[in-house]
Write a structure and sequence with these properties.
The protein has 113 residues and is mostly beta strands. It has one domain (5-105): Sandwich (Jelly Rolls). The chain contains one helix and eight strands, in the order αββββββββ. The protein has one helix spanning 5-9, and strands at 26-32, 35-40, 54-61, 64-68, 71-75, 80-83, 89-92, 99-105. The strands form two sheets. The protein has a five-stranded antiparallel β-sheet with strand order 1-2-8-3-6. Strands 5-4-7 form a three-stranded antiparallel β-sheet, with no helix packed on it. The longest helix has 5 residues, at 5-9. InterPro entries: Cupin_2 (IPR013096), RmlC-like_jellyroll (IPR014710), RmlC_Cupin_sf (IPR011051). It comes from Granulicella rosea. This is Cupin domain-containing protein. Residues 40-91 form the Cupin type-2 domain.
Length: 113
């Protein structure tokens, strides 16, 4: 299986919603079993909330801060970030060119359950 980065980005943005007034800047590009892979490139503000599965971010471009439960984690291009299931998190202070893969997997509640 091959997932093309440029092709994934070509689907964005999707139309604005009440939750994402700047437009929807994530797109699921692959699903298999419990795993899903998205390309995510927020604009303006990151409105996401906690998720029921563990999540891994692979930063493809840009810089910023991922805040998990009020703890900031600065990141740069090439970094990998892990967010356990059910933890509040969002990206802040991200550069205008920020792009990341988001990978969800595992049972509801996370692997540690």
């Amino acid at each position: 299986m091959h997932i093309d980065f440029k092709s994934a980005l070509s689907h964005l943005p999707l139309p604005a919603t009440a939750t994402w007034p700047e437009g929807v800047w994530d797109k699921t590009v692959f699903e298999h079993g419990t795993m899903s892979i998205l390309v995510f490139t927020p604009r303006g503000h990151d409105y996401q909330t906690s998720h029921t599965q563990d999540e891994l971010y692979i930063v493809m471009k840009g810089t910023g801060v991922l805040t998990i439960e009020d703890e900031p984690f600065p990141f740069v291009e090439g970094d990998v970030l892990f967010v356990p299931a059910t933890k509040r998190h969002r990206f802040t202070e991200f550069s205008p060119d920020f792009i990341t893969w988001a990978i969800f997997w595992g049972q509801q509640g996370g692997e540690a359950v």
